[in-house]
């Protein structure tokens, strides 16, 4: 597990995301300005050009030339409910696409309703490869469409790589195990867990990592401390309310993504609980949301931007090999995660845990 590195090292070349931050716009807008597209406001174009000049940003022409003169069209299908996750995914994909002669076509779809139809449509329009972030990366039906049409694909953040599809991911089990062990090391013995969408394999791996860490520490992995979520903020609210309505509430809650962890913090505040004084809350992903709420979240840093970049690389190399008459073997890359500690976790303190009415009718309180 590597120490977390800053997103941009001193002396490194500026990227599209650096320009976007300086200009106060999205990376996609920067890309439109660079490519000379007309659907950008004059004021916005001026701000982007000023940021480009101030940072000394130049597109990597050398890398683009390596990709060949002919443009490569890639599709990115998404059905993820987390806007923060999608934003980082797009940053990485667009940055890497700008280094090659690649057009990235982004399409929204529903994994249950029209994912296969959208994939067929993109392929019929000349898309040569497709990026599949979760939950689409775990869809057997979608993978079957890609195999049938002989379309290269890369699954992002999947915990179940398939033999005919390249993949870029982290070890979800070990990451969840590490976070649970961290909470145990702080002195927490009653730790709640909010599971992600059951349709995503990573959800089960994170749950198992949590359970195994508790068992190894000699703590009970009680079913009542596990609440079902869907990786959405709304589902996080419902799950947190369930955990915080138990007769004996947990001293810490570990949520399977930052959206649900942020919802847990909101519910704790509405119940009059201090985070982390009364309740430690930890998340997973380390999206921008983790540092835009108070207190800032302790979370697992999943390198989403780097995973997206690596996925584009794998896909471009496979397509270039095909154009040259070679067949590039599918690869599964496992990137490092990092446990990032901020302000939302602390050792448990002595506080009321159970409030009940005794035989005499007098309220009784048991402390930790």
Automatic annotation (TrEMBL):
<dbReference type="InterPro" id="IPR000843">
    <property type="entry name" value="HTH_LacI"/>
</dbReference>
<keyword id="KW-0238">DNA-binding</keyword>
<protein>
    <submittedName>
        <fullName>LacI family transcriptional regulator</fullName>
    </submittedName>
</protein>
<dbReference type="Pfam" id="PF00356">
    <property type="entry name" value="LacI"/>
</dbReference>
<dbReference type="InterPro" id="IPR028082">
    <property type="entry name" value="Peripla_BP_I"/>
</dbReference>
<keyword id="KW-0804">Transcription</keyword>
<dbReference type="InterPro" id="IPR010982">
    <property type="entry name" value="Lambda_DNA-bd_dom_sf"/>
</dbReference>
<feature type="domain" description="HTH lacI-type">
    <location>
        <begin position="14"/>
        <end position="68"/>
    </location>
</feature>
<dbReference type="InterPro" id="IPR046335">
    <property type="entry name" value="LacI/GalR-like_sensor"/>
</dbReference>
<dbReference type="Pfam" id="PF13377">
    <property type="entry name" value="Peripla_BP_3"/>
</dbReference>
<keyword id="KW-0805">Transcription regulation</keyword>
<dbReference type="GO" id="GO:0003700">
    <property type="term" value="F:DNA-binding transcription factor activity"/>
</dbReference>
<dbReference type="GO" id="GO:0000976">
    <property type="term" value="F:transcription cis-regulatory region binding"/>
</dbReference>
